[in-house]
Specification:
There is one protein chain. By secondary structure, this protein is mostly helical. It contains 13 helices and no strands.
Length: 278
């Protein structure tokens, strides 16, 4: 009679752990997170003639175009703020949001070999792409301080709220980026739709114009775009003035929290299929 010399392997099938422990697990990979973020920063400007100057040129050129079209030709009201400063203050969080959104949405597909060969919490990859955008934000913020000095706009105590608003811009980009990165693994249409989505989103955000152009009764509906609260919050924090009401900030904040919860939940639910589909 044939006898087994060793017991058969034991295979234990168990459900995925709850979302919170899996997010805590991502914290244990924080060194990998920072390494990937630093890699993204280094690769972005590698072999470029202007290097990190692009972090300044992009918002400055956009500000110049907005100033000519909306500030001079269309004479869009800015509630007494010089238009170049008004526009740049809106472009600053938008640049952070749009870069982080584009980079995180394509991050999983761009790191295909890493996803299929090594285990780690996959959410680390889009998070690293978002963090990389903070470098450009810091460079452009220095230029904004110079504009405020040029236009003699004093810094008030409201600037203490700026870190919270930066976190809100990062959270908005993270929520949408995480969701799109997971969808992009299955449907590569995201790559083609993302530029169009970003353009439409920019027009729906009060960067080149003021919220005061909308009737007050419509502003809560307008604030369903979470970047409305972020941009208006930046102007309030840095310039000390905004036409947005507390309702606008509450609506944008609530949408931001709901979007983050939904995106993270969806990402963790489909994470196990990434290596097979990508």
């Amino acid at each position: 009679m044939l006898q087994l010399t060793s017991p058969l392997p034991l295979i234990e099938i168990r459900p995925d752990p709850p979302a919170l422990p899996r997010l805590v697990e991502a914290w244990t990979y924080r060194e990998l997170l920072m390494f990937l973020a630093w890699r993204d920063v280094a690769v972005r400007y590698k072999q470029t003639a202007l290097g990190v100057s692009w972090a300044v040129l992009q918002p400055v050129l956009t500000m110049a175009i907005f100033t000519l079209i909306f500030g001079r030709l269309a004479a869009v009201p800015t509630d007494g703020v010089p238009y170049p400063l008004f526009a740049f203050c809106g472009l600053l969080p938008w640049q952070l949001f749009s870069f982080a959104l584009g980079a995180s949405a394509n991050s999983l597909v761009a790191n295909e070999r890493l996803v299929t060969k090594v285990y780690f919490p996959r959410i680390v990859i889009p998070l690293a792409s978002v963090i990389a955008g903070l470098v450009d934000f810091a460079i452009a913020f220095v230029l904004l301080m110079g504009l405020m000095y040029y236009y003699a706009v004093p810094i008030s105590a409201t600037i203490l709220a700026l870190p919270v608003l930066v976190l809100a811009a990062v959270a908005a980009a993270t929520a949408v980026g995480i969701l799109l990165s997971a969808v992009n693994v299955r449907f590569r249409d995201v790559k083609h739709a993302l530029p169009f989505l970003t353009q439409i989103w920019m027009l729906a955000t009060p960067i080149a114009y003021s919220t005061s152009l909308f009737p007050e009764r419509w502003r809560p509906l307008f604030a369903l775009n979470p970047m409305v609260g972020v941009v208006e919050g930046f102007r309030w924090s840095l310039l000390g003035h905004t036409e947005a009401t507390g309702t606008v900030f509450l609506v944008s904040g609530a949408i931001l929290l709901l979007g983050m919860a939904f995106s993270v939940s969806y990402f963790l639910r489909v994470e196990r299929s990434f290596a097979d589909l990508i």
